[in-house]
Every structure is written in C-alpha cells, then in structure tokens.
Amino acid sequence: MAEDLYSVLGVSRSADQQEIRRAYREKARKFHPDVNKTPGAEDTFKRISEAHDVLSDPETRSQYDRFGENFRQYAAADAARSSEQPRRSGGTRHTWSGGGAQSVNWEDLFGGFGGFGRGADHTAELEITVEEAYRGGRRTVQVASPYGGAQEYTIDIPAGAVDGQRLRIAGAGGAGANGQDGDLLVTLRVKDSKRYRLSGADIETDLPLSPWEAALGAEVSVQTPGGPVTVHVPPGSSTGRRLRLRGQGMPRRGQPGDLYAKVKVDVPRSLNKKEKELFEKLRDVSSFDPRRGS
Known about the structure:
Layout: H1 5-9, H2 17-31, H3 41-55, H4 58-67, H5 71-81, E1 93-95, H6 106-109, E2 122-129, H7 130-135, E3 137-144, E4 150-157, E5 166-169, E6 184-191, E7 196-199, E8 202-209, H8 211-216, E9 218-224, E10 227-233, E11 242-245, E12 259-265, H9 273-285
Parallel strand pairs: 1-3, 2-6, 8-12
Antiparallel strand pairs: 3-4, 5-6, 7-8, 9-10, 11-12
C-alpha cells in the first residue's frame, strides 16, 4: 500500500494550501538528489513532488480525500456514471510542458540549484480569433496537471495582439523550493475567422458586390473589427481586386495596419422577369468579352 500523501509531506488532512506548500519546500530541500546522495533520496523526492501536485490542486485533493490512492481510476469511473458531473467552464484546456514526478527536470525546477532557484516556467498555447486579437479582452485558460485536475487562470489579451506573442502569468508555474515560483507562459495563436484573415498587421476581408456595383462603382459599407466603414468601389472592379482602407487593420504603436477589402462579384441565382429582360438587353448591346486575350 502506498504511503498516504499527507504523511509524505508531513501535514494533517486539514492543512491549508500554505502549509502544504511550505512542507513541500522544506522536504524538497532535504531530499533533492543534487543535495542528498543517500540511496532512495531521488525516489523520496519524486514521491514528495507527486504529493504536492495532487494536494496543491483543490480538485485532485478532493478526489484523493474521497477515493484514496486509486483516486484517478475511481474518479474517472464516478464521472462516467454520473451525467451530472460538473465540468469546468472557460477557455481551452492545455497541458503543462514541465513538472510532475515522472517528467520533472531537476535543473529547471530548482534553477541549477544555486541555493534553490525559482520554480520551472510552464507553457501553454491559446487560440484566439482575429477579432479577439484586434479588440483584446479577457480569456480563461485551464492548465492540466500531470496528476489529474486542472488549474484555471484568467489572462488579459492586449488590443493588437500578434500571433506568437507570449503573455506571462507570474507565479503560476512550478513551485520553487525557495519560495519563488515559476511563471506560466501563454503563447497566443491568432486563428483566421470566417470574416477576417490576418497577415502581419494587415487584415483582409471579402467584399461581396453585385454585378452592377462592380461595373458602375458604388459606395458600400464594409464591416471591420472596429466597426462599419464606407469604402469607395471604383467602376469596373472585378473579383479579386483589393481595396485598401488605411489604418483599419490591427492596432499598433505608431502605425496601425491596413484593411484590404477583396472584391467578390456575386451573380443573382434567380432573376425575375424584368431583371432577366435587362440582362438579355445588356448581353445584346455589350461588346465586352471576358475571355478575349486569355
């Protein structure tokens, strides 16, 4: 039978999170394999790390208190039986890139062990739309522990966020034995939406036009992430033509990007009698041949 995780850390079952963290740091200093070379020290340290990972997360601690050492299997079976098992709400679920008794990197966890450095930084990715990148706002990220459960964090996305930008949540990474925890680094991935496509600081969107608007020119409204904007369509605009709206792209310090409205000429799928007559008349009088010279 595995040793009780509370006993591993030397705390009572009523211990709060501060006591658990303090006990972990004290025992980590004592049994870290870079310091303690006695046989079994590394295994003890792994068990200490596992106990901390389980008991420092309220969800996994509750499951452990309920089911004991086999809490993962029982909790999974219990969730499968109950259709009313609550689910965490909020952003996308991601996995830590480091930490955990089985995959922990001692060097990263304790910063080279020069007097026990800060905890390891953890990483996650978060997909956001072009609209979210433009406006900014708040999103919730759930980061899964290697031992089950998840921790929820709220992050502030700055207006004009770019793909690959990293946001730092201080102290949300691995526990440091000297009291300085690592950070959670969230990498933003800007995903094109149905309406908008992003290229650097520039945004592209489709601009549907009727045949007569494209042929005669028009003033039409274009929806941008910042709101509707009127664009002048020059006469004779064919599908694929890009109309530039300066400064309507992504917000940037100094010079914002541009928005390009890409013309897409749409033809009516059905015509009433009068419309059909007019198109037939246009066909009979026009000398335009789109295939000439192709």
